[in-house]
Write a structure and sequence with these properties.
2 domains; four-stranded mixed sheet
Length: 395
């Protein structure tokens, strides 16, 4: 992973992504690229300013985990295309707070040398860009909302230093020592070149800009998800292990080779694909969460086919990945029989993956019986959790 969040988001600014935004806005790729050098740290700074709000961070974490996490999928999205309604939707969120984002868009427009409408589009394009990276980072680094907040707080200085001259006027007073003060605003000539008079007149309200930009992010994302809903995000009912009949969100994830799969957001397949896209030193082990076996048998039920197909598609997209399929049981009954059952179930899953096109040479199976529990065998719920099949990426 990138050394900082700023570096990580900037990795999403691929030539294809910049070309797509250039085409949609009618601005040169050089101007678009320069604009994002202001948009990205501005959005990150806005989020960092709210990092102490646990409720906000929980909502942000949920949105990030439901966002595509590769630049090509983001480039294919229709977010912020002029005339599509993204700017109007986002602006509606802002009107009740600050009366609009003219201060920010004017600053971006002057800094990058683009039209104000294009600057607004760059901001809206920046929303899924930032959220996509945050979702990928959360999966790869195993971050929850609280740890994500800590990451933002620890990188405040780095984010602030990346803001172009004059943009720290949008930070709330006292956000960083010496940043956002009147002296910092008035003694910088370049600031007056970037931010026009109307921006300086709004300084008493600048502490609300982070709130406004977050509203822009959330409003833009909600519009974006709605626009993509027919193909990418929807509500579904899944018979997942332990959650039969519960409503889950599904999302479309793009894989190498142009493959797209529709999977439960945050589920086993989502986490596996995220790990393979950005492996971490801690390794990757994932419990299948939509597999079912006939009682006391190694026979997979028909409801397991969907997860097998999804996992097979992911593994075929990463042909160099080596995996181990491991079966586990609770401690009920004879242990020798448990070992045999766990071994047979692991083999059944591996066979199903092989039949779905995964190379047999990339897989091995093992059965551990009840020797590796991950829950208390003295309770029904604990025993249910211990009856599982796990996929571990070993190379």
């Amino acid at each position: 992973m990138a050394a900082t969040m700023l570096d990580g988001v900037q990795e999403f600014l691929t030539p294809n992504f910049l070309s797509h935004v250039s085409h949609e806005t009618g601005e040169s790729e050089a101007a678009v690229s320069k604009g994002f050098m202001a948009v990205v740290p501005t959005l990150l700074a806005s989020i960092a300013g709210r990092s102490g709000d646990s409720g906000f961070m929980s909502q942000l974490a949920s949105l990030a985990m439901n966002s595509p996490s590769d630049a090509e999928a983001l480039a294919r999205s229709t977010a912020a295309i002029p005339g599509s309604g993204a700017e109007t939707s986002a602006g509606g969120w802002l009107s009740g707070l600050t009366g609009g984002t003219s201060s920010v868009t004017n600053a971006i427009s002057r800094y990058a040398g683009v039209r104000a409408s294009s600057a607004s589009s760059l901001l809206s394009f920046g929303v899924p860009l930032v959220l996509g990276y945050l979702g990928r980072m959360m999966r790869s680094d195993h971050l929850d909302a609280s740890k994500l907040a800590q990451r933002f707080q620890s990188e405040r200085g780095t984010i602030a230093s990346a803001l172009p001259a004059g943009f720290n006027a949008f930070l709330p007073t006292g956000w960083l020592p010496g940043v956002g003060s009147r002296a910092a605003v008035d003694d910088t000539v370049t600031r007056r070149e970037v931010i026009d008079t109307s921006v300086r007149h709004e300084r008493p309200r600048s502490r609300w800009l982070p709130l406004a930009l977050i509203a822009l992010a959330l409003g833009g994302l909600l519009w974006w998800l709605a626009a993509r809903g027919r193909t990418d995000v929807n509500s579904a009912v899944s018979s997942a292990a332990g959650t039969v009949g519960s409503a889950v969100r599904t999302m479309t994830r793009s894989l190498p080779g142009g493959v797209r799969i529709n999977i439960p957001a945050g589920g086993m397949e989502d986490r596996l694909a995220g790990y393979l896209a950005a492996p971490t030193a801690s390794g990757g082990s994932f419990d299948f969460d939509r597999l079912e076996f006939e009682t006391g048998s190694t026979n997979l039920t028909s409801t397991s086919r969907a997860q097998i197909a999804d996992v097979a598609a992911i593994l075929k997209a990463y042909p160099r990945a080596r995996i181990t399929i491991a079966g586990h049981t609770d401690n009920t009954g004879d242990e020798a029989a448990n070992v045999e059952l766990s071994r047979g179930r692991a083999q059944a899953v591996m066979d199903a993956l092989r039949n779905s096109g995964v190379a047999a040479t990339n897989m091995q199976s093992q059965g551990y019986g009840s020797s590796s529990p991950n829950a208390d065998n003295s309770t029904d719920s604990g025993r249910a959790r211990n009856r599982r099949v796990t996929l571990s990426v070993t190379g």
